[in-house]
């Protein structure tokens, strides 16, 4: 089955700096890669996703890049703000799979 | 997401007790999931359902059972709770858009403590 590894497990940055979280996956059939943000006391919520036919996708301060050959994808957050502090999960799924496999999560802390 | 609700939000129980966690959704989605979250272990899939009466095991189904009697409801049961089932439990839904399923919508979670 699919295996997703996520690094780092914790990340602390100064407000205004950039943050990068990286994930690798094992199943070459995976073609959908979402990123979820989980705020304290809440369920995860999708913030951005990318499909395997695209190498990069951007939405304001967040962007995701995908390298299919190397089987890794990354989340980039620029100009970080304290409200970006949360746990971030990456996931991978193949179209014909009924489920996604999640990484272990990254706790991001943005210091004012 | 208010469209996916979980009850109870918190539960403390004793070893050996039977526990049921409920999930309801008003999104009209056909697929529903139960996950368990432990610190440092991410989200692990317990069971998932593609439609009413359809049940599929996830990666950690031992000790759990589920019921999908209606499209909007998916219940998770612990027949005889044990302390290592203490965790945060999430229900999620998804639907088909075009030819594939995309994002999952998560409920607020149920914090379960087994003493």
Residue share in β-strands of chain A? over 45%
Helical content of chain A stands at: under 10%
Tell me which oligomeric state these chains represent: heterodimer
Into which percentage range does the β-strand content of chain B fall? Answer: over 45%
Poorly predicted regions of chain B: none
What is the structural class of chain A?
mainly beta
Q: Describe the sheet with the most strands of chain B.
A: 7 strands, mixed
Task: Tell how many strands the DSSP assignment of chain B holds.
Answer: 13
Care to give the gist of this entry?
The complex is a heterodimer of chains A (112) and B (115). Chain A is built from no helices and eleven strands. Chain A is mainly β and 112 residues long.
Q: What does this protein look like?
A:
- The complex is a heterodimer of chains A (112) and B (115).
- Chain A is mainly beta.
- Helices cover 0% and strands 58% of the residues of chain A.
- Chain A is built from no helices and eleven strands.
- Chain A has strands at residues 4-7, 10-14, 19-25, 30-38, 45-51, 56-59, 62-67, 72-77, 86-94, 101-102, 106-111.
- In chain A, the strands form two sheets. In chain A, strands 2, 4, 5, 9, 10 and 11 form a six-stranded mixed sheet that branches.
- Chain A starts with a strand and ends with a strand.
- Chain B is mostly beta strands and 115 residues long.
- In chain B, 0% of the residues lie in helices and 54% in strands.
- Chain B has strands at 4-7, 10-13, 19-25, 31-37, 43-49, 56-57, 65-70, 73-78, 87-94, 96-97, 100-101, 105-106, 110-114.
- In chain B, strands 2, 4, 5, 6, 9, 12 and 13 form a seven-stranded mixed sheet that branches. A four-stranded antiparallel sheet of chain B has the order 1-3-8-7, with no helix packed on it.
- Chain B is globular.
- Chains A and B meet through strand 4 and strand 5 of A and strand 5 of B.
């Amino acid at each position: 089955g699919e295996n997703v590894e996520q690094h780092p497990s914790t990340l602390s940055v100064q407000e205004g700096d950039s943050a990068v979280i990286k994930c690798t996956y094992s199943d070459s059939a995976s073609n959908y890669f979402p990123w979820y943000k989980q705020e304290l006391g809440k369920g995860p919520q999708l913030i951005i996703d990318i499909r395997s036919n695209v190498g990069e996708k951007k939405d304001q301060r967040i962007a995701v890049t995908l390298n299919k050959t190397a089987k890794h994808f990354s989340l980039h957050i620029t100009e970080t703000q304290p409200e970006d502090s949360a746990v971030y999960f990456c996931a991978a799924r193949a179209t014909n799979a009924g489920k996604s496999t999640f990484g272990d999560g990254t706790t991001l802390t943005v210091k004012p | 997401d208010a469209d996916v609700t979980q009850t109870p939000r918190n539960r403390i129980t004793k070893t050996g007790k039977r526990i049921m966690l409920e999930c309801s959704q008003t999104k009209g989605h056909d697929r529903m999931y139960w996950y368990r979250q432990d610190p440092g272990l991410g989200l692990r899939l317990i069971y998932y359902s593609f439609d009413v009466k359809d049940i599929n095991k996830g990666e950690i189904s031992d000790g759990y059972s589920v019921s999908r009697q209606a499209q909007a409801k998916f219940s998770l049961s612990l027949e005889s709770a044990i302390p290592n089932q203490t965790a945060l439990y999430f229900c999620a839904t998804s639907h088909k858009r075009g030819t594939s399923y995309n994002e999952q919508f998560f409920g607020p979670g149920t914090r379960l403590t087994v003493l």
